Amino acid sequence: MFDNLTDRLGGVFDKLRGRGALKEEDVRSAMREVRIALLEADVALPVVRDFINSVTEKAVGQSVLKSVAPGQQVVKIVNDALTEMLGSEASDLDLAVAPPAVIMMVGLQGSGKTTSTAKIAKLLKEKHGKKVMMASLDVQRPAAQEQLKVLGEQVNVATLPIVAGQMPVDIARRALQSAKLQSFDVVMLDTAGRLHVDQQLMDEMKAVANEATPKEILLVVDSLTGQDAVNVAQNFSEQVPLTGVVLTRMDGDARGGAALSMRAVTGRPIKFVGMGEKMDAIEPFHPGRVAGRILG
Ligand code: GDP
Question: Is the ipTM of this complex over 0.95?
């Protein structure tokens, strides 16, 4: 993850740190290289522009250039700006409502939505001691409800019994009723995906959200699709009140553009990253740690 970016930035920073004194032109030339490195990592252009402007402004200040270790200071400024770009602080799930708290999972087909639903359910159960129920509202894909049931058995999390022919809003209502009766803490609703963002999908999500009043609406996107993932997130966030993003397939993403631009472009925090196909391959997203990893 981020290997190329780490290598490129490492080269720039070694040069900066190697000098005793720094002139404004040295900083500007380093920033030109950082700019290219970010663009090669597939970070959205406006995000790169803002980042470079803000870092340059701080780094060419006299207090930096005249300090004892100017190179070190510039590296710190870049680190802080990267952390800010990634979202500053880790955003935990907010489940503070009278139970059951509803988490609605949305996203395009194949993004890793069903897998992430089961991973998060497992995490909530094992790490936070929550009693979790999952329900699939995907009546589009014949095997979808069955897929969630199989994953539920695998991670030992309850799933709502399947009733053939029920519509998504009705399934959501039944899930909530059932969860209340059985004192579940959390209900996870895995909604239907589509190949593209379309109006029917958005309308269905809005209807489900109205019925279930979710505390969290998490959009699942595939990091390997780079800026497309960011565009999809922007599209969704204009129509449904997303509370966060789950970025999947980060285990295979060497560039990291989606992770780096998501917060700045959509205003929504990345809450989890998927790191593989296994059920425990999910991690909370920590901007500071990720920035540290990028800087090597
Ligand atoms: P959905 O259509 O959005 O529900 O997608 P699925 O949950 O069925 O996932 C599609 C495929 O992506 C499955 O083969 C998953 O195992 C795989 N997948 C999901 N998340 C990750 C991840 O973080 N890393 C990797 N390598 N594969 C993943």
Answer: yes
